[in-house]
Design a protein that fits this description.
There is one protein chain. The chain has helices at 3-25, 30-50, 63-77, 83-107, 111-138, 167-187, 191-211, 214-230, 234-249, 251-262, 266-284, 295-298, 319-347, 357-375, 385-404, 407-435, 444-447. With 448 residues, it is an all-alpha fold. The longest helix has 29 residues, at 319-347.
Length: 448
């Protein structure tokens, strides 16, 4: 192995460990996760300079809509009321999302590497849930934070948010986590792991209940109910048991969830008013939008509800309307093409392995995207930076898992790689023989 090959391998290792670190930190510390991402990008660019063989880029399934989304988002900056702010916000956020997608999509290949990334995500989730339980047991009174209508729910004084900004964002994250744990539970074959996954699912459900996030609770229940109706009726029984236990332990939870259908509070009224305002924005700016991240600047012109109250409205509380308002209808469609295309890729994937890990991963990604799609009806869950980083990370994992193929395909690839290495060794020996020297590091040790 030459010095250049050794350096290339070293840099490849740096890229991979940076990806692992980002996956672990995204739910715990977004600034540190971003730092890990930038470190990985530096290692990757250095490797591209050192090793020409690494400059062949892999075509990912949904590169086109991702690029179109980034392009139209950039164009929207020019129509923003404050171009400097929109540009700063755009290159910081979209830059992080695209770099995450590219770094993983172009550098992760082996199944064991994908598995370790999932383990890093899982370990971080354990810490998030443990901190959520700690908050519930010893936490603060959140009633003053205006996360709930005190008149409509006077008994609700405590909502956990763990390492996330507020309970609703934590709840969206927990929905994603529950989708993964559930998918591994139904797909993996080892009985002991399934028992552990079942226990983890109950703990996640308990932490989700502590957020009192109505839509997130309804979304995850709907996902499990639909799966039970079409795939396995036993899931319906599990949903009934867990939901009944949570309601018995906390009767206020049932009142909170059913309030979606039985009463109108300030939160519901404001959402309806925001959607009306956002539709007006889209009607006035259908092509290029109002500008990336400019919702809070433009909203006062369309304030039909608050009427000048001293409240900062930063997004439309609807993922679909928010994208259409800020970057235009075509920009929103390009993102949804990427989003739902990735969800379909994961759901209809034909990957296979004897353990069931890959099937579980792809099912988990598809259900996680479905949960984001449903939660996005009443909130812009992707307005939160780590939520979007996680989404683009999962999209890249779906792409590389699909590329990884089946165990049989990987065996063929490994055989081909081994054959190429042996051919290269033979060529080196022949050249060395002509030169009258024996090549260093040749022999059986090198082949292994």
């Amino acid at each position: 192995m030459t010095a250049k090959d050794s350096l290339s391998d070293y840099l490849a290792g740096g890229v991979y460990y940076a990806i692992l670190l980002e996956a672990f930190l995204v739910a715990l510390s977004p600034p540190l996760a971003t730092a890990a991402l930038l470190l990985g990008v530096i290692f990757w660019f250095a490797r591209l300079v050192v090793d020409k063989e690494c400059r062949r880029f892999r075509r990912l399934p949904y590169d086109v809509p991702a690029a179109l989304f980034a392009l139209l988002g950039a164009v929207s900056v020019f129509v923003s009321p404050d171009r400097a702010f929109s540009f700063y916000n755009y290159y910081n956020l979209v830059g992080v999302y695209l770099l995450t997608y590219l770094l993983i999509g172009q550098n992760v290949q082996a199944s064991q590497d994908i598995r370790k990334i999932v383990y890093a995500l899982g370990l971080a989730c354990v810490l998030v849930v443990l901190y959520g339980f700690y908050q519930f047991a010893f936490g603060i009174d959140t009633s003053a934070m205006k996360w709930v209508d005190g008149d409509a729910f006077p008994e609700l004084k405590k909502r956990v948010f763990s390492t996330w900004e507020n309970p609703n964002i934590l709840a969206g994250y927990l929905d994603v986590a529950m989708c993964f744990v559930f998918a591994f539970l139904v797909k993996m074959r080892d009985q002991r792991r399934r028992i552990a996954l079942g226990a983890a699912l109950v703990l996640l459900a308990a932490c989700l209940a502590m957020t009192y996030a109505r839509m997130a609770l309804l979304v995850i229940a709907l996902i499990f109910i639909l799966y039970g109706m079409f795939r396995d009726w036993r899931v319906l029984l599990g949903v009934a048991v867990v939901a009944g236990a949570l309601v018995l332990l906390d009767p206020a939870l049932l009142d909170r969830v059913t309030s979606v259908f039985t009463r109108v509070d300030t939160s519901s009224e404001m959402r309806l008013a925001l959607w009306e305002s956002t539709l007006a924005m889209i009607g006035d700016h259908p092509f290029f939008g109002i500008g990336w991240g400019a919702y809070w600047m433009v909203y006062p012109e369309y304030d039909f509800y608050l009427q000048g109250a001293d409240v900062l409205i930063v997004h439309a509380h609807n993922m679909y309307l928010n994208y259409a308002a800020e970057i235009g209808v075509v920009g929103a469609v390009s993102f949804l093409w990427f989003f739902f295309g990735t969800m379909g890729l994961a759901f209809f994937s034909k990957v296979h392995d004897s353990e069931g890990f890959r099937q579980g991963l792809m099912l988990g990604i598809s259900l996680a995207f479905f949960s984001v799609a449903l939660n996005g009806l009443t909130d812009d869950v992707l307005f939160n930076i780590p939520s979007s980083m996680l989404l683009w990370l999962l999209a890249a994992l779906a792409a590389v898992t699909e590329f990884a193929g089946n165990e049989e395909d990987e065996a063929v690839v490994m055989d081909e790689l081994t054959a190429r290495k042996r051919q290269k060794l033979r060529e080196l020996r022949q050249r060395a023989g002509k030169g009258g020297e024996s090549p260093k590091n040749s022999g059986e040790e090198s082949e292994n």
